[in-house]
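Session log. Operator J.P. requested a structure for one protein chain; no other inputs attached. Running the standard single-chain path with token output.
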Amino acid sequence: MADPQKTIKTPAYSETIKTEVVCPNDTNPMEILQGGRLVQWMDIAAAVCAQTHADGICVTASIDNVRFYNSAKIGDILTIKARVTRAFSTSMEILVDASVRNPFNHTPKSLAKAYFTFVAIDEHAKKRNIEPLVIQTKEDEKHFRMAAVRKERQLSQQDDE
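Structure written below.
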């Protein structure tokens, strides 16, 4: 019998949404958001998402396939969404999507997308096990399957090094 007090760890349970406004110190001399600053914000959103799923501290293990689609300028509003796609034994993959909108035009544009891998650690900074992800939608099922493909590709690339 299932524990009635146990939290079901679905992708929606730990989904994290972070909002930022692009300020002058976030941009390059052309007043365009620096990619490194965006990746930093994406990493923070992914960390909160991972730590919510794992019920504890998690650290970034890798960032895979960062894609930039549009640019952001001073004053633009960013929305960064992080969602667990798959939990392995001690690690999890998190899809992070960033969108941008001008405060005068509320139509968002895709800004960037990346897959982050986080590892759960204990108080001694040693890897620890995490709960599996409970899939509920067809979209989540697709992300779940593709996460295994990406992990296998990463492992094979490590073998080649």
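Operator note: Helices lie at 11-14, 35-54, 138-160.
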